[in-house]
Amino acid sequence: MSFKSTIAAWPESRLQPLYEEATAADVEHALAKDELGMADLGALLSTAAKPYLEPMAQKANRLTRWHFGRTISLYAPLYISNLCAADCVYCGFSVRSGNKEKRITLKPDLIRKECEALARMGYQNVLILTGEAPKAVTVDYIAEAIAIAREYFSGVSVEVYAVDEADYELFVEAGLEGVTLYMETYHRPTYGQVHLEGEKSVYDYRLDASERAGKSGVRNLSIGALLGLYQWQQELLWVGLHARHLQKHCWQSSLSVSFPRLLHTPERFEVRDFVGDSDLVQGMLALRLFLPEVGFNLSTREAASFRDKLIPLGVTAMSAGSSTRPGGYATRGKEVLEQFEIEDLRSPEEVVQVIRAAGYDPVWKDYDRAFDPV
Ligand code: SF4
Question: What's the pLDDT tens digit per position in 265-289?
Answer without folding.
Answer: 888 899 989 999 999 999 999 999 9
